[in-house]
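Allow me, if you will, to draw on your knowledge of protein folds for a short while. The matter concerns a single protein, recorded as an amino acid sequence and a row of backbone structure tokens. Could you please explain, in whatever detail you think fit, how the structure tokens follow from the sequence? I remain grateful for any guidance, and I place the record below:

…
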Amino acid sequence: MYRAITLKALEHGVDVNDREAVERLANETRIELRSRPEGNQVMLDGENVTSRIRMPEVTAAVSAASSYPGVRELMVREQRRMSDAGGVVLEGRDIGTVVLPDAELKIFMVANVLERARRRKRDLELSGIDADELELAQQIESRDKKDSTRLASPLKKADEAIELDTSDLTIEQQVTFIVERAVEKMNRG
């Protein structure tokens, strides 16, 4: 969702460092997340922007755009609305601490920065973009630092979250781990 706002700002020539302009833009924006058999889709004002929100220029600017309290307030409200019916899985840097502090199951996923850069490079290549892995690693470290030190909803692990280091795990192993923790929770009532 934050990437979608960032994409819109970039495409409309809005300076992502201009808090008031980005917050105003966010108030005029409709973001939907749609579940489809081929995968989740991010809709921005009715347009599918799923692949465009992963572009390097969006990644470079998302920390700034997502740091503004007015933007965060709107996104948190929408994320909570999506979770009202229950049975949802949400991911994000403040889901377990700010958005859904009473969530039944919280998994804090981590991976070493080089593995994250390798994964990002692979994702970009699927979109036809070539990127330097070491440069990606530096960008990831920089974003983590910015997001961990921002005043509004900083990135941090919730006290009760289960940490899962995915560095050496396949997607299937990650899913299995999470499903097992969910089943344990359900069995305990």
The chain has a mean pLDDT of 93. The domain at 1-87 is CATH 3.40.50.300 (Rossmann fold).
